[in-house]
Amino acid sequence: MRRSAPPPGFPHRATLPEVWVEEVRKAVLSWSADNERHFPWRQTRDPFQLMLAEILLRRTQATRVTQPYSELVSRFPDPQSLANADPTEVRAMFRSLGLVKKADQLMAAARVIAQEHHGRVPHDLAGLLKLPGLGTYSARALLCMGFDEPLPMIDESSGRLLRRLLGLPAHRNAYGDRELLAIAKELLPVGSARRFNLGLLDLAALICRPAAPRCPSCPLRKLCSFARCAGGARSGS
Ligand code: SF4
């Protein structure tokens, strides 16, 4: 079956073609079922543990924080225990990685949750954004991953993929881009937002790489403006 693709520079203020949207959803979910990356924070739905992960992951590579994350949730499994922790001990867990500032943010966030939210992670964007160490992306990610809110998650890598997919200009900053967020929201499949968001992140990290997208291996290649216009051979976007 010949697949549909939006024209390069698709007028993204318009509604995306329904058939195309459905094919993108299916392609991402199907690819993700076989290719999902495994990180310890993807094994939990506990909002506090997910919050710790989001603070650690902010502007930091996942591989760098995998081990300290596991140590942290094992030693301090809930907000109260981390709020009451000896700062010297927590900082020591991150000192060799040069992430002492994150240790302070983690403890400060735990204290706010313990003291102002009865030990429960806030379930709303405004409440999460008041926690030290969380930004808009990480707060949205937490709402989706921990509370099953159907919210899009656009970081630099998934934003890059969507721009290529739709033939949008490459120079935009993905964080806070309202049009990209609207597109990502339209793409979210009902009932599978979490899986779709993770699939998009993994696809962007493993296939739609910044300098050399692996279009021939991409499940979206027949739906993608970039691959169609550049034959998948162009190396940047
Ligand atoms: S086909 Fe190529 S450019 Fe398009 S989403 Fe896949 S890897 Fe990225």
What does this structure look like?
- The structure is a single chain.
- The chain has 237 residues and is mainly alpha-helical.
- The protein has one domain: Hypothetical protein, domain 2 (Endonuclease III, domain 1), CATH 1.10.340.30.
- It is built from 12 helices and no strands.
- The protein has helices at residues 18-35, 47-57, 62-75, 79-83, 87-95, 100-116, 125-129, 136-147, 156-166, 178-187, 193-206, 225-230.
- It is elongated and about 55 Å long.
- The two termini are 28 Å apart.
- The relative contact order is 0.15.
- The model is unreliable at 232-237 (pLDDT under 50).
- Iron/sulfur cluster (SF4) binds at residues 161, 164-165, 207-208, 213-215, 218, 220-221, 224, 226-227, 232.
Order of helices and strands: HHHHHHHHHHHH
Helical percentage = 55-70%
End-to-end separation in angstroms reads 28 Å
For the residues shown, what is the average pLDDT?
90
Biggest β-sheet description: none
Based on secondary structure, the structural category is mainly alpha
Please indicate the percent range of residues in DSSP E strands (runs of 2 or more).
under 5%
Number of helix segments?
Answer: 12
User: What's the quaternary structure here?
Assistant: single chain
Outline:
elongated
Label the CATH architecture.
Answer: Orthogonal Bundle
Give the tally of β-strands: 0
Q: CATH first level: which class?
A: Mainly Alpha
What is the CATH superfamily label? Hypothetical protein, domain 2
Radius of gyration, taken over Cα atoms and rounded to an integer in Å: 19 Å
Q: Regions with pLDDT < 50 over 5+ consecutive residues? A: 232-237
Number of domains: 1
Instruction: Return the CATH topology.
Output: Endonuclease III, domain 1
